[in-house]
Amino acid sequence: MSNMDSLVKNSKSELELKLSDSQDALQNLYFQKSMQQLEDLSQIKKIRREIAQIKTVISSLDLNKKNVVEDLNE
After folding, report:
1. pTM for this prediction
2. What is the average per-residue pLDDT within 27-38?
3. Burial group, residue 22, by CB count within 10 angstroms (0-12, 13-18, 19+)
4. Could you tell me the pLDDT band of residue 65, with boundaries at 50, 70 and 90?
5. 30-59: b (≥16 Cβ within 10 Å) or e
6. pLDDT-derived band of residue 14, with 50, 70 and 90 as boundaries?
7. For a FRET experiment, which of 3, 32, 57, 64 has its CA 20 to 30 Å from that of 47?
8. What is the C-alpha to C-alpha distance for residues 37 and 29, in angstroms, rounded to an integer?
9. How far apart are CA 30 and CA 17, in angstroms?
10. DSSP secondary structure letters along 19-51
């Protein structure tokens, strides 16, 4: 989970940039797979896991921000 720890330290804009890059990489891997040029199929699993972790951190940041705003309104 050291990867998750490093993700939490990033800002939302950095996470969104990483998400975009990871999604592009995943698309390229699927393309390579369809052309039978991809030798290590586990790369797809790794990128999908990374995308899920990034999305989890982004949604966590959004929820925390929402909770802080609600606490200030009370």
Report:
1. 0.83
2. 95
3. buried
4. confident
5. eebeeeeeeeeeebbeebeebbebbeebbe
6. very high
7. 64
8. 9
9. 20
10. HHHHHHHHHHHHHHHHTT----THHHHHHHHHH
Q: Which of 2, 15, 25 lies closest to 55, judged by CA? A: 15
> Helices 42-73 and 12-34 sit at what angle, rounded to 10 degrees?
160
The single-letter DSSP state of residue 6 is H
CB 43 within 8 A of CB 32: no
Among 37-41, 51-55, 63-67, the range scoring the smallest mean pLDDT is 63-67
Rg, the chain, Cα only: 16
Q: Tokens 């939490």 appear where?
A: 8
